[in-house]
Amino acid sequence: xxxxxxxxxxxxxxxxxxxLTSATGLTVPTVTPEGLNGKPVFALIVAEGAPVRWRDDSTxxxxxxxxxxxxxxxxxxxxxxxxxxxxxxxxxxxxNVSYYY
Length: 101
Known about the structure:
Blueprint: H1 5-8, E1 11-17, E2 24-25, E3 42-48, E4 52-55, E5 67-69, E6 75-77, E7 85-88, E8 94-100
Antiparallel strand pairs: 1-8, 2-7, 3-6, 3-8, 4-5, 4-7
């Protein structure tokens, strides 16, 4: 049985990152849309415009080193959201990020 994200989670917030020319981290929200303090447990991340690379091992990715993320392919990331970094592989990279708890 396949279960979609919305069936088991609540959205914590959204972020769009439009500048990925250098290694960039997430701005993880600390307040829910309802105004409650909290912390998301995972993020759904989708690249747009150009593929990106990411690393979450405290080392910055480069345009040629890191885990590739293709345009339109969702990454469901449930690691430490404060450690993951992204960089575009070519010009025009954008990340769309939804946070969930």
